[in-house]
Amino acid sequence: MPAKQTSSQSPSAKKNHRPPTYANYINGEWAPSKSGETFANHNPADTRDIVGYFPRSAAEDIDAAVAAAAEAYPKWRLVPAPKRAEYIFRVGEILIRDKEAISRDMTREMGKTLKETRGDTQEAIDMAYFVAGEGRRLYGQTTTSELADKFAMSVRDPIGVCGLITPWNFPIAIPSWKIFPAILCGNTVVIKPAEDTPLSVYRFVKAFEEAGLPPGVVNMVTGYGETAGAPLVVHPTIRLVSFTGSTQVGRIIAMQAADKGKKCSLEMGGKNAILVMEDANLELAVEGAIWGAFGTAGQRCTAASRLIVHKKVIKKFTQMLVERAKGLRLGNGLDAATDVGPVVNQEQLERVLGYIEIGRSRDKAKLLCGGERVADGDLAHGYFIAPTVFGDVAPNATIAQEEIFGPVTAIIPCQDFEDAMRIANGVGYGLSASIYTGDVNRAFRAMRDIEAGICYVNAPTIGAEVHLPFGGVKGTGNGHREGGLQAFDIFSEWKTLYVDFSGRLQKAQIAD
Ligand code: UN1
């Protein structure tokens, strides 16, 4: 339940103790979908628990939200960036105050452990401070001109109305990566959160409302991809689409955006590898692999779904890893004893179990632990999958090539460092990678030669920080980076300005 009762909840919900009904946020007001239709948001740890009902929105709701954002844009773009930043600072303060309640709601709607949802909320707080600080910088360049008495500089311009489509695995962190830099740069936005995690984005948007953000600058419309996301992408007023999700959907969005001449930034799948060399600290590598593979039940774009291990240490590493994996406690993420929560929904459950079956049969990999749904006792009504480790996996096996997005990892043997690098780069994705080694030369060669947007040394593939660029190469992205100063390149256009104060016509490049 939200901390405060709001006009977004139906009065009948309060009387009957029905789960609350939430609303879209358009032009600073809370309103149901025009059709009045809703969908239920279930707790994946116990599907009998309905978190709330959310508007099942369609093109007409998107139209209203985009119109509100377009109306707010001309004023908002002229608010000085340091003033725009003040709202973001205030949102950061509200998130700090409400961190615990937000994180509990997030665990309830998407399953990951409370420690992790606190981390998710913290990532949005970090992003608030980082981006708001930029309000007093947002530097361009001043430079020399080749002509006398002429001044040259470049500044960032906003783009207009941005359409943001966000995933369920980082329900507040990823929306914060998009909304904060977008509005700091002077854009207005419409966000369509994943249908599995609308409550987290509702809470995030409530923070903007409480911070006093002018109506129409941030708008939220909930619903499904096909009916609410798709009209947002193709809407003629939307100048930029920023999407995080599957490579399959991202490619469709990229084509639609290209067709309509929109800017488009994509953050998609990964097949991230940890390389464990023969000189690695094995204890540390195992600990990193457990966190990288099974943190967030493997539902991170950065999850370590491949462990490429040197033949000299593979036996010992495997033994240690499997022992640790077997000891992980599955359960409700609100329970402090839980290490691994459920996967997010029925579709994910089936998808992950489908890949486990492929690993066993088609890939002929050795199932070392896990490999099944767990539905005993308290887990009977949730989407729990035992942490799964496959051994002896061939580099070209399906489970070593395709993104699974669940608590499943594949140990792939390698001969030496060169072989490990070949295997690591032999996939269609390139988000995150890591190497465990004591050899500084190898570490630098790995950093130089890995085909990935992020590379860790002696740390797992997860744990990116907001002030550095986040994103990947190959099938993972389309050349953009979120986080870091690079995020501002997504949400602004460069404008170059020349001022000639010579009082006569001067011609660049033309000799006189
Ligand atoms: C994602 O998996 O989509 O680096 C984002 C990490 C987190 C962000 C992950 N800070 O794992």
Question: How is the secondary structure organized here?
Answer:
Blueprint: H1 11-16, E1 24-26, E2 29-31, E3 38-43, E4 46-55, H2 59-76, H3 81-97, H4 99-110, H5 114-134, E5 141-143, E6 150-157, E7 161-166, H6 173-184, E8 188-193, H7 198-210, E9 218-220, H8 225-234, E10 238-244, H9 247-259, E11 263-267, E12 272-276, H10 282-294, E13 304-310, H11 314-326, H12 346-360, E14 366-369, E15 388-391, H13 398-401, E16 408-414, H14 417-425, E17 429-430, E18 432-436, H15 440-449, E19 454-457, E20 473-474, H16 487-490, E21 493-500
Parallel strand pairs: 7-8, 7-10, 8-9, 10-11, 12-13, 12-18, 13-16, 15-16, 18-19
Antiparallel strand pairs: 1-2, 3-4, 5-6, 6-21, 14-15, 17-20
Helix pairs in contact: 2-8, 3-5, 3-7, 4-5, 4-7, 5-6, 10-11
2-aminohexanedioic acid is lined by residues 123, 169-170, 300-302, 462-464.
Q: Would you give an account of this structure?
A:
With 512 residues, the chain is an alpha/beta fold. It has two domains: 57-268 and 477-495, Aldehyde Dehydrogenase, Chain A, domain 1; 272-457, Aldehyde Dehydrogenase, Chain A, domain 2 (3-Layer(aba) Sandwich), CATH 3.40.309.10. The protein is 37% helix and 21% strand. The protein has 16 helices and 21 strands. The protein has helices at residues 11-16, 59-76, 81-97, 99-110, 114-134, 173-184, 198-210, 225-234, 247-259, 282-294, 314-326, 346-360, 398-401, 417-425, 440-449, 487-490; strands at 24-26, 29-31, 38-43, 46-55, 141-143, 150-157, 161-166, 188-193, 218-220, 238-244, 263-267, 272-276, 304-310, 366-369, 388-391, 408-414, 429-430, 432-436, 454-457, 473-474, 493-500. The strands form six sheets. A seven-stranded mixed sheet has the order 14-15-16-13-12-18-19, sandwiched between helices. Strands 9-8-7-10-11 form a five-stranded parallel sheet, sandwiched between helices. The protein has a three-stranded antiparallel sheet with strand order 5-6-21, with no helix packed on it. β18, α15 and β19 (454-457) form a beta-alpha-beta unit. α4 (99-110) crosses α5 and α5 packs parallel to α6 (173-184). The chain is globular. Residues 1-14 have low confidence and may be disordered. 2-aminohexanedioic acid (UN1) binds at residues 123, 169-170, 300-302, 462-464.
